[in-house]
Write a structure and sequence with these properties.
This protein is an alpha/beta fold. The protein folds into 3 domains: 64 residues, 2-Layer Sandwich (Alpha-Beta Plaits); 144 residues, 3-Layer(aba) Sandwich (Rossmann fold), CATH 3.40.50; 95 residues, no CATH class. 33% of the residues lie in helices and 24% in strands. The protein has 10 helices and 15 strands. The strands form 4 sheets. The chain has a 5-stranded parallel beta sheet, covered by helices on one side. It has a 4-stranded antiparallel beta sheet with strand order 2-3-1-4.
């Protein structure tokens, strides 16, 4: 079992922290450098968390739990127009990042208006590429209840936010509803706004933990954080991607920020724990910038399990 953490400190001697994580059998999920400041999102064995905390204290840095690390969330706004953005959705996005989540903001093409709001099939598929979706809706109860068609048939977990108090049972398709986060024409810095954001983080964390527990009964053949590490080590083109997170971990896979047409075969041939990635995962074309989406399979989901003899042969051919 791994614990996900966020280390915040200076660039000076940060290699010592990374070396310790590697020695403990852990992984660096994301590294962000801003001038002389460094933020590492990492995963280490549960029994070694104390060692990381001791090293952080030695380097004058700070370590805190990142319960959403290794997940990719979609923050969905009805439109990109000024009545919906930037304040509430942007602040929701920024706040969830503090808990380790990697999130993407998605504005629907025709989401405005309770009578004319729509969502296309491509938009649904794009949202379903994520682990969870947060729909940041508005301030009127009737309007929110008339927009359930935006999320009622999505195949991933959905959390809806809005200003009024609404029973989640009145929102078919939503796993949870968090009030106090409607259309607010300012930054969410007041006490009631911070409390609503904290409530949202707790709700999202509970849903993610439930999903992880369910996956524990039938987990992927290899963990997604290991797949991320092997792709970074075996695919040289990853080093040319300037995004802060060229490979994004998800609960059941990774998103690789390389062009599908050019690199999907190279990704499919990556070796992970004596398996060829193509044999234990679905390699798909993402609707986000033509990236590569890797969805890992569990042992029960593989129709013809890959035997050790065939696995060794496949690895040998790949090498």
């Amino acid at each position: 079992m791994y614990e996900t953490l966020t280390y915040t400190g200076g660039v000076h001697k940060h290699e010592e922290m990374k070396e310790l994580i590697e020695d403990l059998g852990g992984f660096v999920l994301q590294e962000t450098v801003s001038q002389m400041d460094l933020v590492l999102t990492l995963a280490v064995p549960v029994e070694d968390v104390e060692k990381v905390q001791e090293k952080a204290h030695e380097l004058l840095g700070k370590v805190k739990l990142a319960p959403m690390a290794g997940t990719e969330l979609a923050i969905v706004s009805p439109t990109l127009a000024r009545q919906h953005l930037p304040h509430s959705a942007c602040d929701i996005s920024e706040y969830l990042r503090r808990y380790g989540a990697k999130d993407n903001m998605i504005g629907l093409q025709r989401g405005a208006g309770k009578g004319i709001s729509r969502i296309s099939e491509d938009e649904k598929k794009l949202i379903e590429e994520h682990d969870l979706a947060v729909f940041a809706l508005g301030s009127f109860q009737e309007c929110i209840k008339n927009k359930i068609h935006l999320f009622d048939d999505l195949e991933i977990s959905v959390v809806v936010t809005g200003a009024p108090e609404i029973d989640v049972n009145d929102l078919p398709g939503a796993d949870a509803y968090v009030s106090g986060l409607g259309r607010i024409p300012r930054r969410l810095k007041r006490g009631e706004n911070i409390r609503a954001l904290k409530k949202l983080a707790e709700v999202v964390e509970d849903i993610i933990n439930t999903r992880r527990s369910e996956m524990g009964d039938d987990p992927p053949i290899v963990p997604s954080i290991l797949v991320k590490t092997e792709i970074e080590n075996q695919v040289p083109s990853i080093k040319k991607v300037y995004s802060p997170a060229p490979v994004v971990s998800q609960l059941d896979g990774v998103r690789v920020k390389l062009d599908y047409d050019l690199y999907h075969e190279e990704i499919a041939n990556v070796v992970v724990q004596d398996y060829i990635l193509a044999d234990i995962a679905d390699i798909k074309r993402s609707l986000m910038y033509n990236y590569i989406l890797v969805k890992l399979l569990s042992e029960t989901s593989i129709v013809e399990p890959l035997g050790q003899e065939n696995s060794d042969k496949a690895v040998s051919e790949a090498k």
